[in-house]
Amino acid sequence: MNSYKYTTLFVCIFLAAACVTKLKEKYVKARTAEELKIHAFESCGRHYRILSYEDDTARIKCLKQATK
């Protein structure tokens, strides 16, 4: 009976960890700020953050899950 409880607990923890969704981080190529906004909006909608920007490549993070 004791092993049954541990097995059930392990399965519940495993399923809870497997169902967690992570927010997307993406690299986008953009020469101008306008291109960057367009790519970020297409990928994430309104809710995004620019994490870094170098030359013509930016790293963005979606703050909410995009619904498609």
Q: What keyword list fits this structure?
A:
68 residues, alpha+beta, three-stranded antiparallel β-sheet, 43% helix, rod-shaped
- The secondary structure category is alpha+beta
Distance between the termini: 45 Å
Flag low-confidence runs. none
Order of helices and strands: HEHEE
Beta content comes to 25-35%
Helical stretch count? 2
Mean pLDDT: 83
Helix percentage range: 40-55%
Globally, the shape reads: rod-shaped
**Largest sheet: number of strands, sense, barrel closure:** 3 strands, antiparallel
Radius of gyration, rounded? Answer: 19 Å
Number of strands: 3
Main β-sheet, spatial strand arrangement: 1-3-2
Please, could you describe this protein's structure?
This protein is α+β, with helices and mostly antiparallel strands and 68 residues long. The chain has a domain at 22-68. It contains two helices and three strands; from the N terminus they run αβαββ. The chain has helices at 2-18, 33-44, and strands at 25-29, 48-54, 57-62. The protein has a three-stranded antiparallel beta sheet, covered by helices on one side.
Question: In brief, what are we looking at here?
Answer:
The protein is α+β, with helices and mostly antiparallel strands and 68 residues long.
